[in-house]
Q: What sequence folds into this?
């Protein structure tokens, strides 16, 4: 069984290779049952407890647990954290992997939405993550174009 280390409000749960394999088998079984059920209820997951009672897990939590299970079953490292609705420019810059001045330039240009709270600039976390995803998509597209150019020019071994 994995070991949990808790410090302040952070916890690290290490999992063993057998737990990764159990997650893989369990996820495959869940996927099999979901595909077999034509009228699957997407509202949530029903959990049967040993005493015979059942509890329905809300759809949002089911989705989160499903994503964690999927990642663990693939042997990935998973970090689960809550993110506030509004971010400071320093935090947003860290999330985006850029300097704060570069972020402020993007805000000034209107490339990423922001608003003022008194004299401080704040960004909505959903806008920051949408911008990050847009950047990633543009990078993937540019990389694909570069690979295609290499293929067209015969530069690939």
A:
């Amino acid at each position: 069984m994995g070991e949990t280390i808790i410090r302040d409000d952070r916890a690290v749960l290490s999992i063993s290779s057998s737990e990764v394999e159990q997650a893989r088998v369990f996820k495959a079984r869940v996927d099999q049952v979901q595909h077999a059920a034509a009228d699957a209820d997407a509202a949530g997951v029903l959990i049967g407890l040993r005493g015979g009672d059942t509890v329905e897990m809300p759809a949002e939590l089911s989705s989160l647990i499903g994503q964690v299970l999927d990642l663990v079953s693939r042997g990935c490292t998973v970090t689960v954290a809550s993110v506030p609705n509004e971010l400071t420019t320093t935090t947003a810059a860290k999330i985006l992997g850029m300097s704060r001045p570069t972020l402020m330039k993007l805000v000034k240009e209107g490339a990423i939405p922001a608003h003022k709270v008194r004299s401080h600039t704040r960004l909505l976390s959903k806008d920051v993550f949408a911008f990050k995803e847009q950047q990633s998509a543009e990078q993937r597209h540019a990389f694909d174009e570069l690979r295609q150019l290499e293929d067209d020019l015969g530069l690939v071994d």
User: Anything to note?
Assistant: The longest strand covers residues 3-7. The beta strands are 3-7, 10-14, 44-48, 54-58, 86-88, 115-117, 120-124. The helical segments are 17-36, 59-73, 89-96, 100-109, 125-153.
